[in-house]
Design brief:
Layout lengths: L7 H13 L1 H7 L5 E4 L2 E14 L5 E18 L2 E12 L10 H7 L1 E14 L2 E8 L17 E2 L9 H4 E2 L1 E10 L2 E8 L25 E4 L13 E10 L2 E11 L4 E7 L5 E7 L2 E13 L2 E11 L2 E3 L9 E3 L2 E10 L5 E12 L11 E14 L2 E10 L4 E10 L5 E12 L13 E9 L1
Parallel strand pairs: 11-15
Antiparallel strand pairs: 1-2, 2-3, 2-26, 3-4, 4-5, 5-6, 6-9, 7-8, 9-10, 10-12, 12-13, 13-16, 14-15, 16-17, 17-20, 18-19, 20-21, 21-22, 22-23, 23-24, 24-25, 25-26
């Protein structure tokens, strides 16, 4: 992770990197080399991956090819542009009938516009209009203050964050003065998380009432009214070496809440529907570099989110509960070629009800350890666990940068714990995987 700076020069440098920084991405193995064509600058990558889910009823769960192509350039008069798209096809849905037809239709192929925006500036103001990533948080392994980004959760949090985030159509204005920065955003029709279809490998539904027959019907997405858009304000500054920010964001929830209707005829059963409620979120972040040891913290207060409840008198089977999520982490390099990141996090329910199956204070921790083994080979282990119940994820991996343009990665994704947990619900989804990426 890279510590954010607030000076105007560095902010503009980061923006330039996002628009045209192919060489840095290639060096890290996550982007592509560049192809110059006239005034435009192009980069991209091809990726092929396979995964096998090995618990009982073991099966191939991924045989996929992906590609991304991104271009950037200038239109003159200080106006810059970026355009990128993605395409993919997963042949696992052609070779097996393990998944329902709705899942195959949803996840077999992909062809999408990724980013498409214009950048320009006027005095101390910089503007970005179009489909873009707006990243307000940068913790490891999980999302906290990154409240604006919608996410493709059809593979849970397993892909790289750059692949999980879904760019939003937005208008963005930023003002810079010395070490201070203000940001205003408007999203006319915010995207929500892609959660897939029932029966998918990582569909995010945990049945709250054991033994009750149920079905899940189609999502109810936010209406496209002005009042249902996204509005946000974020300010940051440097104080004695601390990078401090605060924000307010009102929008439909990115995450789905599963509303319930109970039917008594012909037998007791329930119908669940994913819906997206309006939320108000207030948050803050801070970061400081202590000569190589980086301290980070984020906190987000959320009002309006609904949680599934086992109470029969809960309206629509959900309860409106206010929460405070916070996380503190440190990033260090204790020895040559070693990197360690440790995080402690909590969700506190300010309006708690035991019928949701969660405690008033849900504690968790994560640990990431990586070691450069030389010759382009790196070993990594990420562990995330609840501290109040059995609920955990373990991700060992080996990455080999086989030259300037090629990267091979192999690893395991292992889940455990109780079915109501964030990870325990996927305890029969342990998988081994391999990926090859070629930077164009």
């Amino acid at each position: 992770m890279v510590l954010r700076k607030s000076t105007r020069a560095v902010k503009r440098g980061l923006a330039a990197t996002l628009v045209a920084g192919a060489s840095c991405a290639a060096a890290q193995g996550t982007g592509g080399a560049s192809i110059d064509s006239g005034a435009a600058h192009w980069q991209g990558w091809l990726q092929f991956g396979a995964a096998y889910t090995y618990p009982s009823s073991g099966h191939w769960s991924q045989l996929r090819g992906l590609a991304e192509l991104a271009g950037s350039g200038s239109l003159g008069a200080g106006v810059k542009w970026k355009l990128s798209g993605r395409a993919g096809y997963d042949a696992v849905y052609d070779g097996t009938d393990f998944y329902p037809a709705s899942v195959r239709r949803d996840q077999r192929s992909e062809l999408s516009l990724h980013e498409a925006y214009l950048d320009f500036s006027r005095g101390d103001w910089e503007f970005r209009i179009g489909k873009q990533n707006i990243v307000w948080g940068e913790m490891v392994g999980l999302f906290f203050a990154d409240v604006v980004s919608a996410k493709d959760m059809r593979e849970f949090v397993l892909p790289e964050f750059s692949r999980i985030r879904i760019p939003q159509w937005a208008a963005r204005a930023e003002w810079f003065a010395g070490d201070s920065h203000l940001e205003f955003i408007w999203l006319p029709a915010p995207a929500t998380d892609k959660i897939g279809k029932p029966g998918a490998e990582f569909y995010p539904f945990a049945m709250p009432e054991a033994g009750l027959a149920y079905e899940i019907i189609g999502e109810r997405r936010p209406s496209r009214r002005f009042s249902r858009g996204g509005f946000g304000l974020r300010g940051s500054t440097m104080v004695d070496g601390w990078d401090v920010s605060a924000f307010y964001y009102r929008s439909p929830d990115n995450m789905a809440s599963f509303y319930r209707t109970v039917l008594d005829i012909p037998a007791a059963s329930a119908v669940f529907q994913p819906r997206y409620d309006m939320l108000d979120r207030v948050g803050a972040t801070l970061a400081k570099d202590f000569d190589g040891l980086v301290l980070k913290a984020e906190a987000v207060y959320t009002d309006g989110r609904r949680f599934a409840s086992a109470r029969v008198d809960a309206p629509d089977g959900v309860l409106d509960l206010r929460t405070l999520d916070w996380v503190v982490g440190v990033d260090a390099t204790p020895a040559d070629d070693w990197r360690v990141n440790a995080q402690l996090f909590q969700r506190a329910f300010l309006d708690h009800d035991p019928s949701i199956g969660l405690r008033r204070h849900e504690w968790g921790a994560s640990l990431l350890v990586s070691k450069d083994l030389g010759d382009g080979l790196e070993a990594e282990l990420l562990a995330i666990s609840s501290l109040v119940r059995s609920d955990w994820m373990l991700r060992p991996a080996l990455t080999w940068k086989a030259g300037a343009r090629s990267r091979i990665r192999v690893g395991l994704d292992v889940f455990g714990g109780k079915p109501i947990g964030m990870f325990g619900r996927f305890r029969d989804r342990d998988r081994a995987y391999a990926e090859y990426r070629y930077m164009l």
